[in-house]
Amino acid sequence: MINPVVPPTSRRGILAGGNWIIDHVKIIDAWPAQDALASILRQSSSNGGSPYNVLKDLARLGAPFPLEAVGLVGDDEDGRAILADCQEHRIDTRQLRTTSAAATSTTDVMTVERTGRRTFFHERGANARLEVEHFDFSLTSARLFHFGYLLLLDRLDLLVDGRPRATEVLERARTAGLSTSIDCVSEDSERFRAVIAPVLPWVDIFFANDFEAEKITGIPLRSGNSIQPAAVQKAARRLLEAGVQSWVVIHCPEAVYACDTQGHGLWQPSLRVPPAEIAGAAGAGDALVAGVLFGVHERWPMNECLRLGVAAAAASLSHPTCSAGVLPAEACLALAQRLGYRSFDR
Questions:
Q1: Is 169 left (phi over 0), alpha (psi -120 to 50) or beta?
Q2: Under a CB-based contact definition with an 8 Å cutoff, are residues 303 and 291 in contact?
Q3: Contact by Cβ (8 Å): 52, 72
Q4: Taking the CB of residue 338, how many other CB atoms lie within 10 A of it?
Q5: Hey, which of 178, 222, 227, 258 would disulfide with 173, CB 3.0 to 4.6 Å?
Q6: Are strands 205-209 and 179-184 parallel, antiparallel or unpaired?
Q7: Residues pairing with 144 in the sheet
Q8: Beta-strand runs (E) in 238-332
Q9: Which residues pair with 145 in a beta bridge?
């Protein structure tokens, strides 16, 4: 059995900060070629962005500890909707501030009905103005601080003397006594090493999907459509060597792999979700993060954290929005019992 992360004992709760987004999810019949047309079959709006998704997922999982937000929203209808939604899900918004200088960030999520695959068109909005000074760790007694998405926070991604300004946020969190975790966005760019690598020594748990882990490490993780387990393990070790303090968690559709600083590695296959039960994959990665952090906060062994993570991710697939499909933790684990796990050769 793999040992748990052990966050500070005198603190309680999860604080999450970074991108606060309203997702406009559009279900389309097919992904069109350039200059061609696709039909929108139905659409809805919901939460988006790492802290918003993770905190709302934790609330839906039934987290028995405080949930707190930090970030910026616009003084507009979308911003007010976010604040109201947080209140409904018992998320403390003392540090979720409103600005009149920019609109609330939005993302158009185009989800192909037949496959559940999605493509994102993002407007940064108020998130582009989020600064180091917006994070006041003296106002929280949270145990864990989750931060994301790096590469999508303009002023905090900015390099100063070779380090992104996000490093200062993480330093402040750790100095205040919080354990830290981060997530980044699947941006198709060459900025990963410049923006992500320098922050890793101030990160206790680093989450990445296979695309992001490959971008940071330069290690190809897939051969054709198949994930390469040995390459995933090598990438995790490289990220730990780059400074991650406790765990690297790399997830992909097939499975999730976690490795700690002692070299202990653990695979957890994903659930066997029938294609007919998949309404969309938006938010599945954040649901996995929420499940893992739930267990980490409660000091579960990492294998149990990963089990809840993949179960929460599978539950999220049942709805096209990021969080509406997430069930209470017990129901997610019951879903895993019903569906079983994918065959995975590692």
A1: alpha
A2: no
A3: no
A4: 8
A5: 178
A6: parallel
A7: 14, 179
A8: 247-251, 255-260, 265-269
A9: 15, 180
Q: pTM higher than 0.90, yes or no?
A: yes
- Tell me how many degrees the CA angle 61-335-68 measures, rounded to the nearest 5: 10
Residue 136 structure tokens: 């006041």
Residue among 158, 97, 101 at smallest CA distance from 125: 101
CA distances from 248 to 85, 128, 133, 200, 236 (A): 31, 27, 28, 10, 6
CA distance 251 to 326: 18
CA dihedral 85, 90, 96, 98 (to 10 degrees): 40
- With contact defined as beta carbons under 8 Å apart, do 345 and 228 qualify? no
Q: Where do the DSSP E strands lie in the chain?
A: 14-18, 21-28, 40-48, 67-74, 91-99, 105-112, 118-123, 144-150, 159-160, 163-164, 179-184, 205-209, 222-223, 226-227, 247-251, 255-260, 265-269
The domain spans of the chain are 14-339
Say how far apart CA 15 and CA 135 lie, in whole Å: 10
Number of alpha carbons in the 13 Å side-chain half-sphere of residue 265: 16
How remote is the C-alpha of 63 from its chain's centroid? 17
Return the exposure string of 252-262: e unless at least 16 CB atoms fall within 10 Å of the residue's CB, then b.
bebbbbbbbee
Instruction: Quote the Cα angle for 112-211-146, to 5°.
Output: 95
Q: What is the CATH number of domain 14-339?
A: 3.40.1190.20
Q: CB of 280 within 8 A of CB of 317? A: yes
Calpha distance 312→146 (Å, rounded): 17
Report residue 180: phi and psi, to 5°.
-125, 150
